[in-house]
Amino acid sequence: MNKNILTFVLGFISGSAATVIFAKKYYEKVANDEIEQVKETYARKAEIEEAGKIDEDLKAVDKVIKEHQYNTVTDEEPKETVEDKKGPYVIQPEQFCDCDYTPMTLWYWTDGEVTNDDKKIVANVDELIGDVDEVTSYFGEYENDPDTVYVRNDIQRIDYEILKEYRAFSDLNSDEEYDE
Q1: pLDDT in tens, 119-172
Q2: Which residues does residue 150 pair with via DSSP β-bridges, in sequence order?
């Protein structure tokens, strides 16, 4: 019987030792993972704070340049101001809706018709977007959006998005529902 008790005690001790070793390794891993997550969080926070400081520095530099009317040298052509524009003009895609102008979508059909979203023909196209032939010559110019041209009308304070339709408007049946 002493042999059975001794075997039980030795089994209990070895099982307890194995459990302690396993638990120690497991909780060390959990603790190290938590520590790494905290380090990453604080590193990201430091990066964000540094970016904010850089942004503040750039604003301060920009303010000094404007206050002292320093000119900067650039290879870019001077941008036209609103006063320079006499009518509607084509703008870059990133300029669309970058001000407080109202956005509006128009459709250009292969037969030369320009319609609104309700598929109603726009009568005064030249007043709204300028010369249609000139405006449509910009289709395909922008790689990310080849079927769209953007036009700004400073007089009306509207940014027009002109989408190219690959059908003729005259081919639409008046009873036909148009699916975009």
Answers
A1: 899 888 888 999 988 999 999 888 888 999 999 998 889 999 999 999 998 887
A2: 91, 161
For residue 77, the tally of other CB atoms under 10 A from its CB is 6
Q: Are 106 and 161 spatial neighbours (Cβ–Cβ below 8 Å)?
A: yes
pTM greater than 0.70 (yes/no): no
List helix spans (H) across the chain.
2-67, 125-129, 132-136
Q: In angstroms, how far apart are the furthest CA atoms of the chain?
A: 110
Q: In one letter, which amino acid is 97?
A: C
SS3 76: coil
CA distance 143 to 98: 20
